[in-house]
Amino acid sequence: MEVTQSDLHAAAAAYQEFGYVCLPKFFSQTMLDKIEPVVRAFHDRWLEDNHAFYKSHAVNSSGLTADTYLNKAERQTLFTLIGCDSMTKLASALLRRPVYMNSQLFFDPYNPHQKNYWHRDGQYHLSIEEQQAALHGPDVIHVRIPLADEPGLELVPKSHKQWDSEQALDVRLERNGRSKSDSIPGSVALPLKRGDVLAFSANMLHRGLYGNQRFALDILFCEPEMHSFLNDVHQPCAEIRATLECLAVFP
Length: 251
Fold this sequence. Notes:
Elements (H helix, E strand, L loop, with lengths): L4 H14 L1 E4 L5 H28 L3 E3 L9 H11 L2 H10 L4 E9 L20 H7 L5 E7 L3 E6 L10 H8 L14 E5 L4 E5 L4 E3 L6 E8 L15 H4 L10
Antiparallel strand pairs: 1-7, 2-3, 3-9, 4-7, 4-9, 5-6, 5-8
């Protein structure tokens, strides 16, 4: 997709208002054909070490750009995608001075009956008060790149800036008889096709929708104030940096 200033302006406006933006056919199939074998190689090697975790409940893995499961050439392929012109322009339209943070891979659970769950990313390391404060602080975005057509995500629009209703809070914290897989009023389901990109705030209420053998790469960017969450193992080494055309999103 040729990313124009008009596209970026519209994407930024939608993101600021709703907390997410979906861009159809953002990446060419040719680009994804280069990326997918690397991602599948990571997944196969990760499964060898994490098979019990996968069979019990796992729906995602992380740290694709570290050297744990990928060699230097494979990592270079991912860094080329992360730092490409269209990705850099999109991240820069949505965040103030975006910095590459980490990567994640989302797949279907081993158990086809496993239920999905509502959450805000921050709830796993922040108190309720800190989660509320995070809605007004520096932002983190997921840029989701589906490598197969998939049911996508379900989001609560504007929840990147608005706190939970009582019902929504009960659902995601499983209080008052609610389950984290219950429906939340006002949510929107966003099915995705291979080539689409969905950018959304990590702060917002969301859940993955399983099925159709989903296989989606998420690239996470943050604002500079989040530097304490960065880890050098996820960043390109000097040798790889020397091969990249654009280093704008790398610290």
